Amino acid sequence: MEKLSVAIATFNEEENIEGCLSTVVGWADEIVVADGGSTDKTVETAKKLGARIILTDNPPIFHINKQKAINACSGEWILQLDADERVTPELKKEIEKVIIDEIPINGYWIPRKNFFLGRFLTKGGQYPDYTLRLYRRGKGYLPCKSVHEQAVVDGEIGYLKNPLIHMADPTFSRYLVRFDRYTNLLAKEIKASFAQKSAMANFFEAINWLMVKSVWWFLLTFFRHKGFMDSWQGFLFSFFSSLRFPVAFIKSLREVK
Fold first, then answer.
1. For the residues 138-161, what does the mean pLDDT come to?
2. How does pLDDT run across 17-57, given as a tens digit for each residue?
3. Could you tell me the sign of the dihedral formed by the alpha carbons of 101, 105, 107, 109, in that order?
4. With pLDDT > 70 as the criterion, what percentage of the chain qualifies?
5. What pLDDT does residue 257 have?
6. Which CATH number is 4-169 given?
7. Closest by Cα among 48, 137, 225 to 33
8. Is the pLDDT of residue 103 over 90?
C-alpha cells in the first residue's frame, strides 16, 4: 500500500496546476486529479507530471470533485490540495514524520499562508488560516454541502506547524472570479434559507445580510484582527470580503445559475 496520496480537484487550472504538482511530484506516492471538464491544458499538464486523472463533470460545489479524488486514492494517508496551493520543504518533512510515527491521530489541521495582491496576509484573521487537509484514508471526508466547509475526520485530530502556501489571489481579476463564484453559491444557500422562514423573519434577516454582517465583518477583520497592519492589501481584503454578504443577498433575489 502507498503511504501518501495527494488528491486534487481541478477545472481550468492551467496557470496553477504545474506549480502545485511540482511541489509533490517525486515525494507523494500517488497523485489523483479529478478534473471537471477543463478546456485548457490542465489535464495534459497533470498527466505529464504523473497524475492519475479522473474525468468528471463540474458541479457548483467543488468539494464534490475533491471527494471523488479522495475516494480514488489508495494511500494510507491523503493530503488534499487545491491547484493554487504549494507544499513547502518544511511542511513535507513535518508530514513525513507524522505519517511514519505510530501516533493515534487520524487527521491534521495545517496552517495556511494566503497570498493576496503581492503579499501574504498575516493579520485580519488570515493567518494561521487552519485547514483540515491531511487524514488517514477512510477517516476523513468532505460533507459537500457548503463552499467553505472543512473536512470531517473520525477520531483524534492534531495540528501541524509549518504552513501550506496558498497563491489565492495574485491579481485582482482572479479575486473577482473567485468572489463571483463564492457569492453565487452563498446566494443559493440564502435563497433556500429564506424559503423556510416567515415574511417578518425574512425582513430582519434581509437587514442582517445587507448591512449588519458586512459592517461587523469589516470591523472584525480590519480593526479587531488588525488587518490594517497588512497595508492597503489588508484594507482591500477586509472591504471586499465584507461585501460578499450584501452581494450574495442581492443575487439571491434572482435565480442564480
1. 93
2. 999 999 999 999 999 999 999 999 999 999 999 999 999 99
3. negative
4. 98
5. 46
6. 3.90.550.10
7. 48
8. no
Whole-number Cα distances in Å, 103 to 131, 137, 154: 20, 15, 15
Spatial contact of 44 and 50, defined as CB atoms under 8 Å apart:
no
Which run of H or E residues covers position 201?
helix 199-207
Asked if 3 contacts 99 with a C-beta cutoff of 8 angstroms, the reply is yes
Overall pTM > 0.85:
yes
Q: Is the pLDDT of residue 117 over 70?
A: yes
Task: Look at the block and give the residue holding cell 496553477.
Answer: 16
Domain edges within the chain: 4-169, 172-252
Nearest to 2 by CA among 35, 38, 28: 28
Largest distance between two CA atoms of the chain: 59
Counting DSSP H helices and E strands in the chain, the numbers are: 8, 13
And the C-alpha cell for 252?
A: 439571491
Residue 256 has pLDDT above 50, yes or no: no
